[in-house]
């Protein structure tokens, strides 16, 4: 809050009601991920599942910045959070692009890896199969 210099963050998820023009914090199931930034997500329109990988676990101005490499999945139909597989996951990454292909593969390109924020070679492509939630290069 720029007026009080206090952190007024309440949720990682907000919903906008088009009829009332109001923002609400929906009640969700599962364990919601911690606050993130410098992330990119994709949604599977067939299943209503939203996938978001890694990011930074802090907020602007925090002293400790930690890059993450976990996959968080939000089911927009049941409002349930879950975790994807972590075996063979890319190194912790931020500022990447994520694209969901027609065959159910999410392609991650570019960004910055690890807590040293090394640029990722654009030729290095990581993939996640959303049907098996397994990674491959």
From TrEMBL:
InterPro entries: Kelch-typ_b-propeller. Keywords: Kelch repeat, Repeat. It comes from the Eukaryota. It holds the Pfam family Kelch_KLHDC2_KLHL20_DRC7. The keyword Repeat applies. The keyword Repeat applies. Transmembrane segments: none annotated. This is Galactose oxidase. It comes from Rhizophagus irregularis.
């Amino acid at each position: 809050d720029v007026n009080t210099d206090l952190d007024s963050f309440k949720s990682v998820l907000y919903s906008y009601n088009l009829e009332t023009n109001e923002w609400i914090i929906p009640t969700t199931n599962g364990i919601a991920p911690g606050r993130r930034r410098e992330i990119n997500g994709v949604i599977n329109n067939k299943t209503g599942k939203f996938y978001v990988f890694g990011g930074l676990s802090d907020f602007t101005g925090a002293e400790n910045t930690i890059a993450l490499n976990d996959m968080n999945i939000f089911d927009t139909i049941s409002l349930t959070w879950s975790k994807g597989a972590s075996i063979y996951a890319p190194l912790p990454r931020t500022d990447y692009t994520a694209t969901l292909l027609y065959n159910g593969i999410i392609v991650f390109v570019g960004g910055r890896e690890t807590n040293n924020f090394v640029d990722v070679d654009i030729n290095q492509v990581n993939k996640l199969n959303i049907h098996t939630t397994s990674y491959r290069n």
